[in-house]
Fold this sequence. Notes:
single chain, 166 residues, alpha+beta, two-stranded antiparallel ribbon
Amino acid sequence: xxxxxxxxxxxxxxxxxxxxxxxxxxxxxxxxxxxxxxxxxxxxxxxxxxxxxxxxxxxxxxxxxxxxxxxxxxxxxxxxxxxxxxxxxxxxxxxxxxxxxxxxxxxxxxxxxxxxxxxxxxxxxxxxxxxxxxxxxxxxxxxxxxxxxxxxxxxxxxxxxxxxxx
Length: 166
């Protein structure tokens, strides 16, 4: 796929607008996280970043849960995906066959990760990905999200697996 900077070429204005906003948010996160680590040191800084991302993700998950409850639906994984949580454009995904033969939806382009990779800030960016774990826990405690693949770890795509923990 041809790219401009690290973003794929795209003629869809709506998608471009989402990417512009995502770029700004990724830059904001990077500069805030970088300043926190510089001020507090790596260990304490990363601890504070993880706490903030966890609180943010929990709030996102609870918002989805409130809407699922309002609609009288069970709080399962299928119903989570019926409530808009992210823009419908911006993240690129496709279905791929896994080594075990299962067909899974994977994210092949994350506009946030693209910016952090441009900056060489994969490690700080990767802390942000905790948001996925936190939002599913906020949606329903006991539903655990695990990144089994992540482009910021050098994988070709992002993949999240889900487990019931209790």
